[in-house]
Design a protein that fits this description.
single chain; about 140 residues; mainly alpha; 8 helices
Amino acid sequence: MRQQPIPRAERRIRTKQAIIAVAARLFTRQGIQSTSIDAIASELGLTTGAVYANFRSKAELVEAVAEAGSSGDSLLLSLLRVGVPLHERLRRFGRSLASAVPRKELVLLDLEYVIYGSTNRRWAKRRQLRCRAALSS
């Protein structure tokens, strides 16, 4: 029996997720600055054009990787939440920290974001604005 073909929209979602996963792994291993779009594409058996069809720029791909998961964002946001008394924020932060077991790869990736942000001010500013928006909500 033949399998149903995967719809184009589903293939695009899967491709995008695969690009993000490989980019995260390469960013962790080689650093964001040292990882090229070509390296990401070849790791997946894609062309660079296929990667750029999903992400307009490397900065957009870095942002997608950052949005896909970061070890410290939710912990930091719980600590900085507006409208919650300090003692409650500290209590929540302590509980989250005690129960969180951040993977080594995510911590390394967070450090890569700091390094990348120091040389890519536009990206760092967008990330900072997004963080502020999340804090005020």
